[in-house]
Amino acid sequence: EPEVTQTPSHQVTQMGQEVILRCVPISNHLYFYWYRQILGQKVEFLVSFYNNEISEKSEIFDDQFSVERPDGSNFTLKIRSTKLEDSAMYFCASRPTGASSGNTIYFGEGSWLTVV
Amino acid sequence: SQQGEEDPQALSIQEGENATMNCSYKTSINNLQWYRQNSGRGLVHLILIRSNEREKHSGRLRVTLDTSKKSSSLLITASRAADTASYFCATPHSGGGADGLTFGKGTHLIIQP
């Protein structure tokens, strides 16, 4: 079964460093998302992306964050200058187009980011 | 305001029993979804129920939706140890095509053998 894949699975970075988290969405999907989950807390929406542009973003997604679809398969989340509070599990997700799918969103296994 | 709040926050039952989790939301929705998350893993989509549906079944899962009360319930029948996980309800942000989802805080379900 097709799945969303994410790399790395775990990354430790120094505060202030830039981090890029990578995702390969399911191949025929057109809507892409990043979510994060701080340890023990709920899953929080960061950003949605469609047709090569941001469709919606939350207040968490400030100027430190950016997303890019550099080629036909990858979808990346960049954190420009990491802070301790950016430590979290980051989930990539994608959704197929078409009304029949409703809003079913398929998630990757996550990238665990630890900022020290 | 919080959208998609589940209760109870934690539930521990014996294997074979039924588990019921509830979700309340505040704004109008066109669908509601339930997801499962095993510890440290990604979210797995379980079931989607549309606003014009009152009940939906998938295997051992039964979901109800009461739009007048803005609430949904997830029932897992004949629970198994492998059902131990956190369960989240999620509602779309808006009626647009690229809807993100707002998740609740989840119910942590423990199935005791």
Percentage of residues in strands of chain B: over 45%
Task: Choose one word for the global shape of chain A.
Answer: globular
Distance between the termini of chain B: 38 Å
Q: What radius of gyration of chain A results from the CA coordinates?
A: 14 Å
Q: Radius of gyration of chain B in whole Å, from Cα?
A: 13 Å
How many strands of chain A? 11
Average pLDDT level of chain A: 92
Which range best describes the helical content of chain A: under 10%, 10-25%, 25-40%, 40-55%, 55-70% or over 70%?
A: under 10%
Report low-confidence residues of chain B grouped into runs of 5 or more: none
Distance between the termini of chain A: 36 Å
The number of distinct helices of chain B, counting runs of at least 4 residues, comes to 0
Biggest pleated-sheet summary of chain A:
7 strands, mixed
What would the average pLDDT of chain B be, to the nearest integer?
Answer: 89
Structural class of chain A: mainly beta
Write down the oligomeric state.
heterodimer
> Could you give the order of the helices and strands of chain B?
EEEEEEEEEEE
Order of helices and strands of chain A: EEEEEEEEEEE
Helix content of chain B: under 10%
The biggest sheet of chain B amounts to:
6 strands, mixed
Task: Please specify the SSE layout and strand pairing.
The complex is a heterodimer of chains A (116) and B (113).
Chain A: E1 5-7, E2 10-13, E3 19-24, E4 29-37, E5 43-50, E6 53-57, E7 65-68, E8 75-79, E9 88-96, E10 106-107, E11 111-115
Parallel strand pairs in A: 2-11
Antiparallel strand pairs in A: 1-3, 3-8, 4-5, 4-9, 5-6, 7-8, 9-10, 9-11
Chain B: E1 5-7, E2 10-14, E3 19-24, E4 31-37, E5 43-50, E6 55-58, E7 61-66, E8 71-76, E9 85-92, E10 101-103, E11 107-112
Parallel strand pairs in B: 2-11
Antiparallel strand pairs in B: 1-3, 3-8, 4-5, 4-9, 6-7, 7-8, 9-10, 9-11
